Predict the 3D structure of the following.
Amino acid sequence: MKNSGDLVFIYTTLPDESAAVAMARALVERRLAACCNILPPMRALYRWEGAIEETQETAMLIKTRRALIDEATAAATALHPFETPCLLTLPIESANAAYLAWALGETAR
């Protein structure tokens, strides 16, 4: 496994699969993401404007370069249907060499 400090995940949640697919397609087309993994619907419980909400959401992992975090986050925010989207950057400690080379190549500018 190679050190993959140049690669990160950006985690977000969206209201449904179609919103996730639309965002993923836009990020991959712009080379802001090498790949986006859209996970099955999940249940979210949170406090919003003083009330406890319970909704179904779709989680997505955006795989991108560390150098593109700001640009990818800005694009995801602009595409996001939520008023206050969750966009969390998670480091990747290691990755197999072939995948790391592919992901970095797909996000090369």
Observations:
- Residues 2-59+66-106 form a domain with the Alpha-Beta Plaits fold (CATH 3.30.70.120).
